[in-house]
Structure formats: structure tokens, C-alpha cells
Amino acid sequence: MAYLTMHDDGPVRIVRMAREDRLNALNLALVDELVAALEAADADVNVRAIVLTGGEKAFAAGADIGEMADATAVDMKLRDQFRAWDRIRGVHKPVIAAVKGFALGGGCELALACDLVIAGESAKFGQPEVKLGLMPGAGGTQWLARRLGKARALELLWLGDPITAREALSLGLINRVVPDEACVAHAVELGKRLAEMPPVALRCIKEAVYQAMDTAFADGLEAERNLFYLLFATEDAREGMRAFLERRKPEFQGR
Length: 255
Ligand code: CAA
What we know:
2-enoyl-CoA Hydratase, Chain A, domain 1; 4-stranded mixed β-sheet; 46% helix; ClpP/crotonase-like_dom_sf; Short chain enoyl-CoA hydratase; lyase
């Protein structure tokens, strides 16, 4: 792993992007490592939640411009560099972004692709691709249009100006703003709370919420209903309901 560091804090895997001399510019190799790390955490039975973070100055300052500057449209089509990002959406476990400093372009898209976002006060979110004569390529137009509506999305995407953590919070793009020094610890605590929840229920809830963004309302309701019924096949649902009735703390096993 040339561009990442990783360690576990109990059931939480902390993955840190560490290409600090380039503000974590997302070159192909870094994204490959990141996707592999997320998938490995997803497959590891000892991991219940994942925290993705970057450096103090930047979560990530976008796709690596140096890697793209001389590329032709054909090069980009053949490289298809954003295909790997689809696999991030395929991660079943909760992924929490802990963002300090710049989250621009692909860095903003990466934060938005995480399930929850905890931002330090210094965080700045934005899609400045327009200033390079480009547009977002890793989901920015879709995330922002769906989450902010047309007018706010177009303003951010057309002007390319970054917004502060507090503005992102007020727009509903992120979950919480905390002091920078508390950002990763806060995300880890959140991960630990999630780790106490029944994993199969968390997974089904995630699936249903993402489906809500993809499908017509009625189809989403149908999918949600079926996933709800499916959870009755888990021992954790049985245990959770029984523990409630018996006024005790449930013990979830992940099956
Ligand atoms: N790609 C490649 N290198 C980058 C980079 C990027 N996205 N962002 C920063 N760097 C490099 C800089 O070139 C610089 O390298 P050198 O020291 O060798 O000169 C180093 O990181 C430090 O950056 P700065 O000196 O520029 O730091 P700063 O504090 O003056 O500015 C910044 C910080 C405002 C974030 C500025 O670096 C910047 O504007 N970066 C580019 C942001 C951007 O346009 N991102 C979108 C990329 S396209 C994209 O992401 C497409 C997509 O949808 C996925």
C-alpha cells in the first residue's frame, strides 16, 4: 500500500489516504488501493464499520490533474478511470468519511459516496472541475442534483466555488461538523455505535436507502418492504425484539 495507511480501533477499520505531498490527488493507483482496502474491510468479519480519512490540509484535492492533462478523449474512454468507483458503492458495511481541509472534485465526490460524513471545521467541499474546462466525472452531478435539487446543484457545479463545512451541513450534504482535532475520533465513535447494531439490518437499510435514490417511489417502497420481511429470517431480529420485551441489552451475532 503506497498511498494508504490502515489500522483497526476495535471493530472499526480506519483507512487513511496518505499522498500528502499532492494533497491526496486521486491518481489511478491510489483509487485502486482504496477500492481494494474497502472491499477487504467489507469482507473481514472482524470489521463492522469503516472510517475513511485523509490528511490535515486535504481529504483529497480531486482527480490527479497531472495524470489527465495530456490525455485524449479516447485515452480517457479506454482508461475508464471512474469505473472502479462503482465498487465503492458496492461496499455493504457503513463507510464514514472524516473530512478535514480540501474535499474538491473527486475528493468531494469520494466524501459524498461515503454513507455518512463527519467534517472538521476546516473542511471545504466543492466541484471546481468547471475551472479546468471539465465537469465532475465520479458522480458529482448526480449526487448534488439528487441531494440539493437543481438550482443549488447548478450553482455549485457552474461556479465551482467551495463551500465551508457549516454550509455543507446546512445544505444537508454532511452529518456533523466538529473541531478538526476531534474529527477522526468522532467518526470512529460513530463507527463503534454502528458496530453494536445488527449487521444484517444495517446492510438492508443501506440497500433500501440507496435504492430510494435510484428508483421510483413505489418501487422503492416495494424493495424496502421485501428487505424488511427478509430481516425476520435473521436471529438478530429475533434477539432484538425479544431483548426489547425482556428489557435487556440485545446481543447481536451478525446472522
Ligand atoms: N492533481 C494533481 N496535483 C494536485 C492536485 C490535483 N488535483 N491538487 C493539488 N495538487 C498538487 C499541486 O500541484 C502541488 O504540487 P507541487 O507542490 O508539486 O506544486 C501540491 O499538490 C500542493 O498543492 P498547491 O501548492 O496547489 O496547494 P495550495 O494550498 O496552494 O492550493 C488547492 C490547494 C486549492 C486545493 C489547489 O491545490 C487546487 O486547486 N487543486 C486542484 C483542485 C481541483 O481542481 N480538483 C479537481 C480535479 S478534476 C476531478 O476531480 C475530476 C473528477 O470528477 C474526479
